[in-house]
Design a protein that fits this description.
The chain is 33% helix and 13% strand. By secondary structure, it is an alpha/beta fold. Pfam families: DUF1501 (PF07394).
C-alpha cells in the first residue's frame, strides 16, 4: 500500500488543529433504527446536469421532437436502458441500472432547488448553502445538518471517530461550517518512498510535536483512503478522478471509527456544445463511482444513502451547437442499500410547449429539499423542525419525502 500525502501549507494544517482535536468529543448518532449504522453521501455535479439526457422520458410523445438530434431511444445502437414504460437511463450507466434492478437505486425526476434563474454561481450557492436565495455562503446545509442531529453517547477521549468528510482539494460549500470535518483529496503526485513518512515524523516529533500530531493524522487518513492501485490519475471532471475520489471516500466511511457523512463535487457538467460526447464520458465517471462506493463500503453499503444533485437542469430544446443551455428541472440520483429503489419518482409535468417553464425548460415539480429532508429524518433521525429552521431556513412548507429509505 502506498501513502499519498496531502500537501497543505504548514499554516493551513495548524489552523485546522482545533477541529482535529475536537473530533474525539463529537457525539455519535443517537438514531440507529434496527441497529443501523448509517452513511449519507452527497455528490454535487457542478455545471448543471441535463436530466432529459441522463434519464430520458422516452414515453413522452413530445420528447423526440424537442430533443431532435440528441434524442435517445431504447432500440438500435447505443440504446438507452429502459427503467419502466416511460423512463430510460443513459447507456453509460450500467452500474446504476444494476442497482436499480436490485432495488437499491432510484431517480427523482423533474426536481430542482428553489432557484429559478440561470447563473451557475448563484445556483450552486442555493444548492449547497440550503438557503432559498443566493448570497448566504457562510455554511452549507450538510454541515448544519450534522450540528443539529440528536446527540447520543459521547465518543471516548482519544477516539478518532468523526462524522463529516470533505473530499477534494477544496471543501464543497455544502459541508463547510462549524461542525468539524475531515478533509481528504487524492494526490496527483507520484507516491513517495516508504521511508519518507517515518523520517518526517521523526523530525517533527523532535522539533514541532503539534505539527507531528497533525501529520500523523494525515498519514493515517492517506493510508486508508489511498492505495487505490490506479495507474492513471485525473481530477474531479475526469472519469478516473471521479472514481478515485469515490473509492477513497468509501474506504474512510467504511472504517468503524470513521466519518458517517461525506460530500464530493464532480466538475464539468455544463454541456452548451457537443453534449452527446461530453455526457457519455462524464456519466461513465459517475456510474463507476456508484460501483466504487458499493465495493469499498462492504457491509456498510446496506445502511448507505447516496444523493447526486446539480444546481439546475438544461433547456428542453437543443441549441445550434448540439448542446443545451441553462434550464430548470433536472434529475437527481439516489443509490445505496438503504434506498427503497427500483423506481423513478416523478410528478411528470409534460414536454408540450405550454407545459415548459418559460416555454423552454422542464418544469420542476419536486423540491430537492424534500428529498434531503426525507433521507435525514428516516436514515439519520434528524428533527423535521430543526431541518426547516436551521438546515433549510424558510422551508417549513417543504415536507420530508416519505418512503425513500428501506
Amino acid at each position: 500500500m502506498t501513502c499519498e500525502l496531502m500537501t497543505p501549507t504548514r499554516r493551513a494544517v495548524l489552523g485546522a488543529s482545533g477541529a482535529l482535536f475536537a473530533w474525539a468529543f463529537i457525539p455519535r448518532f443517537a438514531h440507529a433504527a434496527g441497529g443501523r449504522d448509517p452513511r449519507f453521501i452527497t455528490i454535487i455535479l457542478r455545471g448543471a446536469l441535463d436530466g432529459l439526457t441522463a434519464v430520458p422520458p422516452v414515453g413522452d410523445p413530445d420528447y423526440q421532437a424537442l430533443r431532435q438530434s440528441i434524442a435517445m431511444t431504447t432500440s438500435g445502437p447505443e440504446a438507452a436502458l429502459p427503467l419502466d414504460s416511460f423512463f430510460a437511463l443513459h447507456p453509460s450507466m450500467p452500474n446504476f441500472n444494476r442497482l436499480y434492478r436490485a432495488g437499491q437505486a432510484a431517480v427523482v425526476h423533474a426536481s430542482a432547488t428553489p432557484y429559478r434563474d440561470r447563473s451557475h454561481f448563484d445556483g450552486q450557492d442555493v444548492l449547497e448553502s440550503g438557503y432559498e436565495m443566493p448570497g448566504r455562503v457562510d455554511s452549507g446545509w450538510l454541515n448544519r445538518m450534522l450540528e443539529g442531529l440528536p446527540k447520543g453517547d459521547k465518543v471516548s477521549p482519544g477516539s478518532s471517530e468523526i462524522r463529516g468528510l470533505s473530499v477534494g482539494a477544496n471543501a464543497p460549500l455544502v459541508i463547510r461550517g462549524k461542525a468539524p470535518v475531515l478533509g481528504w483529496s487524492p494526490s496527483n503526485l507520484q507516491p513517495v518512498s516508504d521511508d519518507l513518512p517515518p523520517r518526517l515524523m521523526d523530525l517533527y516529533n523532535h522539533t514541532d510535536p503539534l505539527f507531528a500530531k497533525i501529520l500523523a493524522e494525515g498519514i493515517s487518513t492517506g493510508k486508508i483512503a489511498a492505495g487505490l492501485d490506479v495507474k492513471a490519475r485525473g481530477g474531479p471532471g475526469d472519469p478516473t478522478g471521479m472514481e478515485q475520489m469515490a473509492r477513497g471516500a468509501a474506504r474512510l466511511l467504511a472504517q468503524d471509527d470513521g466519518p458517517r457523512v461525506a460530500a464530493l463535487a464532480f466538475e464539468g457538467w455544463d454541456t452548451h456544445a457537443g453534449e452527446v460526447d461530453r455526457l457519455n464520458k462524464l456519466l461513465v465517471g459517475l456510474d463507476n463511482s456508484f460501483a466504487a462506493f458499493q465495493q469499498e463500503l462492504g457491509p456498510a453499503w446496506k445502511d448507505t444513502a447516496i444523493l447526486v444533485a446539480t444546481e439546475f437542469g438544461r433547456t428542453a430544446q437543443v441549441n445550434g451547437t448540439q448542446g443545451t443551455d441553462h434550464g430548470t428541472g433536472t434529475a437527481a440520483f439516489l443509490a445505496g442499500g438503504a434506498i427503497k429503489g427500483g423506481r423513478v419518482i416523478a410528478d411528470w409535468p409534460g414536454l408540450k410547449q405550454a407545459q415548459l417553464r418559460d416555454g423552454r425548460d422542464l418544469a420542476a415539480t419536486t423540491d430537492l429539499r424534500a428529498v434531503v429532508k426525507g433521507i435525514a429524518v428516516d436514515l439519520l433521525g434528524a428533527s423535521p423542525a430543526v431541518l426547516a429552521r436551521d438546515v433549510f431556513p424558510g422551508s417549513d412548507h417543504v415536507l420530508p419525502m416519505k418512503g425513500l429509505i428501506v
